[in-house]
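Weekly modeling sync, notes
Attendees: S.R. (lead), two postdocs, one rotation student

Agenda item 3: backlog of single-chain predictions. S.R. asked that every request posted to the team notebook include the full sequence so nobody has to chase files. The rotation student volunteered to paste the first one in as an example of the format we agreed on. Action items at the bottom.

Example entry:
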Amino acid sequence: MTTAHWYGNALANSFGSGTEGNSPNIDFLSDDIRMALLASSYTPDLDAHDFWNDASADEVSGTGYTANGEALASKTLTVTAADSWGTTWAASTAYSVGDIIRPTSGNGYVYRCVVAGTSGGSEPTFSTVAYQTTTDNTVTWATIGVVVIQFDAANVSWASSTITARYAIIYDRTPATDATRPLIWLIDFESDQSTTNGTFQVNINSLGLGVMTSF
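Predicted structure, as returned to the notebook:
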């Protein structure tokens, strides 16, 4: 499964490009949201890059790949109460930074691993104060929200393709120009991935393309 990283300006762009008077730019469900593949020549900048023209010069080309990427299918956006979302905490389990859990007996909050490690043999008493941390043996959890907002879509693939890519970008192609088409998420394959007359497929993480939490 593949984890996506938010571009820093994606949320601002959804509410009007961060500039007073601008119209909202991103409607995840109705806009033409696409995944495009980029070569290793692209240097990601999650803070400074905000529109497709910041990345398009490094888009891959090859047999079976169409410029500007593929439209996402089966898009969903769901809002779920913390006690009904994600996986429950488990004893003596290795957790990585970014993992999200809820207590075995729901307390209305979800928690994100901010220091990787192994959980204790018994469940800690989780903090219910926003953004405070809970120590759990060698794991540290941060209280991150009472609701979870999840963006999801079907896996994306390019059949009978001969291409090499290092990154995938998810962006909104509905606005009129590359300089106004917002970047939303970046997926780093961590090394070049290639196909030779095969199927290049990007499998979306089981938690979805992107996850936000709120208090």
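Discussion: group reviewed the output briefly. The chain has a mean pLDDT of 92.
Action items: rotation student to repeat for the remaining queue; S.R. to check formatting next week.
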